[in-house]
Model the fold of this input.
Amino acid sequence: MRMNSILNRASRNFLWQHPWQLVLAIVGIALGVAVVIAIDLAMESSLKSFNQAGKAFSGSATHRIVAGDGGLDERLYTRLRVEQGIANLSPVVSGTVKLMQPQQETFSLIGIDPFIEKSLHSGWQNEQKEKFPRELLNRLMTEPNSVLLSEKTAQRLHLQVNGQLKVVTERGPQSLTIIGLLPGNNAISDQVLARLLITDIATAQEVLGAYGGLSSIEVMIDKDTPEALAAIQKVLPGYAMLVSIDSQADSMREMTDAFSINLKALGLLSLLVGMFLIYNTMTFLVMQRRRLIGTLRLLGVTRQQVFKLIIGEAFLLAIVGTIVGIALGIVLGQGLLYLISGTINALYFRIDAASLMVTPLQIAKGVALGIGATLLAVLPPAFEATRLSAVKVLARSQLESGSRRLIKTVGSMSFVLILGGLSLAYFSGNSINFGLASVFLVLFGFGLLTPVVTLAFMNLIERVFGRFLGILGRLPARMVAAEISRTGLAIAALMIAVSATIGMDLMIGSFRQTVAQWLHSSLPADLYVSLSGEKMTAGKAQSDHRLKDKLAGLNGVEMLSTALHTKVSVNGKLTKISVYELNDKFRQGFIFKHQVNDDVWMRFDNERTVMITEPYAYHHGVKPGQQVFLKTDQGELAFDVIAIYGDYNGDQGHLAMSRQNYQRYWPDLGYSGIGVYAKAGADLKQLENRVGELLTAHQAVKSNQDIYKASMEVFEQTFTITETLRWLSAAIAFVGVFSALMALQFERTRQLGILRAIGITSMQLTVLIVSETGLMGLVAGLLAVPVGFLVAYILIFVVYQRSFGWTMAFYSDSGVLYQGVALAFIAALFAGVFPALKMAQTKPAEALRTE
Amino acid sequence: MTKETAISIQQLSKSYQESGQQHAIFSNLEMQVARGEFIVLLGRSGSGKSTFLNLISGIDPPDSGKVLINGTDITGLSEHKRTLFRRHHIGFVFQSFNLIPTLTVAENLLLPLELIKRVTRQDHQHVGQLLEKLNLADRLNTYPDRLSGGEQQRIAIARALIHDPDVILADEPTGNLDLDTAEQVLELLDILVRKAGKTMIMATHSPEVIGKADRVFSVRNKALHAHEFDS
Ligand SMILES: Nc1ncnc2c1ncn2[C@@H]1O[C@H](COP(=O)(O)OP(=O)(O)OP(=O)(O)O)[C@@H](O)[C@H]1O
Ligand SMILES: [Mg+2]
Done:
């Protein structure tokens, strides 16, 4: 007992004497935990906000009748209810509106029927049935343009009951009357509620211009009466679908799965680098105390006690680091939330995530991760500590010759890992997880190989330059080699971080090039008119056609192409489809992923065919020559798949169909965009102005360059998150290398003192240490280049293809490579400067006093 | 004292700050050492022997007073100048871990030469001869950690002398060695230093040295006390 408390005091005192090592270890744990936690929080919060927004009006519904963008005809509701006698239905009209003031915030406007069956009451209604006067619901029904909104929002925007809320929709500015406020409750989080305006069906239809339309019908079906499902299916028109709420939530998760896995892998990388930091610090703390520990053993302290002592220290560090890490993670998560929801918005579906939702489970995960990782990292030095004995207090150099043998063994083991990683990449089918695991294996394998390579490199440097360098000049390389167990690890960590950076850089660069080429070829028209807007809006199709006719008649217009982007049910899943009226130029812009027959365009226009994008083919395993089943007004029909084409617009994939085909089976929804091809020699600026004059406020005309630029911006935006995380892990690696160098120099204080006594100036000492760290950076950088290439290769051809279904070309960029080497070199130099200065400033008398 | 003065110490004071308290080690020391003299410093542990040697070499600056080596006041020099001075004029032997572990025996010996001039073929030959004298000729390219403690100390002595400094400072050079080995090392020091006519100050606990010394001092109560010895 007493022994223990004295032991602990000895350990604590020692820790306090090395404050910066202590701080760096905590920083390592904290950063690793923070990045992982932040990604988890931000990702989950984004998805949750989407789910909850749905719950806000779905109540306890089990199913939902949805349609493509055109919405449902409200007569469907009447038919189901009156003719089929189906109870438990709740119609919903939803859309988005913008506030006129301030900052044009977006709100979801949701119109419901307040008097439907209680079981279908929305989340907000259920929670507050007593507090909520029936009179208010009456007013919602009877007073035109009346809405409810959350108390918090009202407070924030300084709005009062009976006040007016000015909003803008497709149909222009409108005024809504606030007739009541919704207090916060448990069913829906405040963040979601804060973005909702609740109203009745009629108001929503009017405000959104969706006369006679519904967005969806919520359905509650008892498990005991499955025949109700069949009854609904029977009367559903071709454009509508019955989906289960659960499957909708699942498919959302599925959709973002690949994205989420890739992000989490980046988080893991940070944690791994963070673990290196912990390992490094604990090893330092053990090595520094080998005399003390040896003495303690002589005094009768058992191995177990020594082991417990080291683990106990690590545990303390882990707790402090984890707490700091979680706090940091929440702050960081808030920042990442915007980036992640931006990417989800661009790639998948619309979400408005306003703030982070933190659950105890996620915190628990962070705690487990921080403590688990720390303890894992500390095991090797803890075992090392138990082997120290007083009789044989090992000199550092003796330990080194032991570790040299180990390094050679580890080096040969690394080949197994690298080969294992590569074959995993090759043979693991379509698994994203295995694909990422192979990246980790390869990185880790090369990490283990690093010390061997370092030794060889230092040897080479000495052989080649040794005779010109003099003895002092040979020292840096010698020092790196002599303490390979420490330097090798720091170099490996730096190498892993830099090669991951190079790999991602090359991957993003290749992707950017691929997308840029695709954009160039898929934007053949000179001008593009976008006819965005709610396709539910009555009369949209007619006005779109009128616009098209006017465009065709403009002076200087050679021809047009049109596109309509909507959704249909394909093989039972609501799927995006692009409906095209093409011309020759546009046709040439399609990049097919295989050899196609000459008659492909003829069949596209005239036969019951579709083309599919590459991600669609990948995710659904569909090949040309096969068929897909599309739900039309005439029932489910088979369409021949005639081609797979490249498309980098979203990773879920979609179909393309000719307008002729579409018109045959589905109602007219107008156009999403019209491409305008100018006659040769026409003044494009003038034409753009003339086109602009024909447009309403919600239509816009853009040149193909503008669209190109905007698309590339979206591309860059989707990778902001990746870039950010990549730099975060590089930053952690930097802290790691810094702490390793600090520890390294600290350990050789005495040796540096001798050098100073012999007459080496403090300037020479600085140069010596900085050259040593520069050499370390150089090795890391040189090794990182081929490894980065390999990583890029696996990312492009394995991970990304499996994640998103895109194929891309590998574009190597020599700039990236130089930057990689420079990055490692400069990072190491930089990390070495402070320890070098510190050592140079240490008084020689003090230095000689150590050890 | 007719001989030329190699080291002159005047009014030298040194104290350390420890947990806020001033803790004097020496006050107003005076000492003259003639060229070629062999001085032994005795004193119990913590009395200030190492501190004294560090003050002479300029590794540690004094609070006040002067240290003149061959007439140069090193206390008046900048840190940088002091280092350069040390390079040329002073050789060191410490109790242990004298050698740079990442350099071979030969390189350890050549390092002080390299600091003051271009290393020539002759220098390499010189190192070879020196090692031969030390009976360590076959260990030229060995790293220090493969050598025994005694062998390491012999190399350290050779290194202290290689660049022909005026003054040798030895801080318990035999402290870590067994009696026999210590004997050998001291013998070597005596022969090499004497023969070369160098000035040497050695701090030690071993009384055997006393017989070889010209003068013996003990460090006590912040001052140096000259020993009168009978033998
Ligand atoms: N940097 C320092 N800060 C505070 N006190 C110091 C410092 N350096 C030396 N001392 C103190 O100065 C005194 C003399 O130390 P010094 O090392 O010179 O003794 P020594 O005679 O060489 O002892 P030993 O025989 O054990 O080597 C000691 O009490 C020591 O604690
Ligand atoms: Mg001493």
